Amino acid sequence: MRVLASVLRDYEDLGLEELELDDPGPGEVLVRILAAGVCHSDYHVVSGDLPLPTPMVLGHEGAGVVEAVGGGVSRVRPGDAVVLNWLPSCGHCRYCLDGRPELCRQPAVAAQHGTLPGGRTPFRRPSTGEPVYQFSLTGAFAERTVVPEAGVVPLPPGVPAHEAALLGCSVLTGTGAVWRTARVQPAESVAVLGTGGVGLNILQAARLVSAWPRIAVDANPRRLETAQGLGATHTVLAGQGGELDRILELTDGTGVDAAFEAIGRPETMALAFNATRPGGRAVLVGVAPPHVDLRVNAFAFPSQAKTLTGCWYGQSWPARDIPALARLHAAGVLTLESLASRRYRLDQLEEALQAMLKGTVTRALILPSG
């Protein structure tokens, strides 16, 4: 079938194209995309900081409706509302069996090649037959896409697609960083460096476990205002110096129990480490370009017993956690509606990316059907 998709032809070169999309093969699912969130990871590919093959259909945070399934698919059927899972683990490797499916190597290798686990991509250019790769086994910036069966999670009723899309990345990553990686406890103090889509959900998760204080740090005053509405008890305007001093001041000079970096810059990663108290945890959630190194004081590790750890996809199990988050939203506990602040057409992806970079949106959404 023919579908419209936003294609990264080469780095910094985006355009709308009509592509040929294969029918789903064995173990695959065809999804009509209703909404797809714009994430900084997408921009990493556009800019070349995350070198992946082109041409490529970007987009990995999305929701839609199953239209067809391939042989052997049993978890979903046509008509099911689903959230896309851009890290469909195999279920039987060492990491999956250890309860760490986010570290599964099968989707990681496929993502590096821009293909599905079997090594093919379902998109191609009609005129030449040239393959068009898909980002993170997903390719959500298209009218339709084909993904592995494990790449979709059935959605409980009652969550609109434009809100459900966010569950597949920013919400899952942010809440998981707090609840699973840092395991924040009631009355523990937290600092969140970067209040974009992921950072706001870190604040939400910290609020839901009654962390105190909850300090939001960002260079954008508008984002700090949004952060206050989603759980920040204190805000620190970055970019003027003194961010560390202000965090220490708010925590009686000791630092926070848990600091989260949600930007992906080495200087803010180091700040997160320095802002934690002795025995505290610094969690790196933001994704830095692969060639970037991080420098922190080595003496602080043994002398202050600090922990510096990464967090990939919220250390989550999407098949379990996405429905749970949807239920929290339906119960009025988890906020989704205020996160998706602006909607764009498929041919406006470049505009949406620029709005994200400038901080004029909380989370931009692409609606492929207009």
Spell out the key features of this protein.
single chain; 370 residues; alpha/beta; Quinone Oxidoreductase, Chain A, domain 1; Rossmann fold; 2 domains; 7-stranded mixed beta sheet; 6-stranded parallel beta sheet; 28% helix
Architecture blueprint of SSEs:
Blueprint: E1 2-10, E2 13-21, E3 28-37, H1 40-47, E4 56-57, E5 61-69, E6 81-84, H2 94-97, H3 105-113, E7 123-124, E8 131-134, E9 144-148, E10 152-154, H4 161-164, H5 170-182, E11 190-193, H6 197-208, E12 214-218, H7 221-229, E13 234-237, H8 243-250, E14 256-261, H9 266-274, E15 276-284, H10 300-304, E16 307-310, H11 318-330, E17 342-345, H12 349-358, E18 364-367
Parallel strand pairs: 4-8, 11-12, 11-14, 12-13, 14-15, 15-16, 17-18
Antiparallel strand pairs: 1-2, 1-4, 2-7, 3-5, 3-9, 3-18, 5-6, 6-10, 7-8
Helix pairs in contact: 5-6
Please describe what this structure looks like.
- The protein has 370 residues and is of the alpha/beta class.
- The protein has 2 domains: 2-168 and 340-367, Medium-chain alcohol dehydrogenases, catalytic domain (Quinone Oxidoreductase, Chain A, domain 1), CATH 3.90.180.10; 172-312, 3-Layer(aba) Sandwich (Rossmann fold), CATH 3.40.50.
- 28% of the residues lie in helices and 26% in strands.
- The protein has helices at residues 40-47, 94-97, 105-113, 161-164, 170-182, 197-208, 221-229, 243-250, 266-274, 300-304, 318-330, 349-358, and strands at 2-10, 13-21, 28-37, 56-57, 61-69, 81-84, 123-124, 131-134, 144-148, 152-154, 190-193, 214-218, 234-237, 256-261, 276-284, 307-310, 342-345, 364-367.
- Strands 3, 5, 6, 9, 10, 17 and 18 form a 7-stranded mixed beta sheet that branches. A 6-stranded parallel beta sheet has the order 13-12-11-14-15-16, with helices on both faces.
- Strand 12 (214-218), helix 7 (221-229) and strand 13 form a beta-alpha-beta unit.
- Helix 5 crosses helix 6.
- It is globular and about 65 Å long.
- It starts with a strand and ends with a strand.
- The relative contact order is 0.16.
- The model has no long low-confidence stretch (mean pLDDT 95).
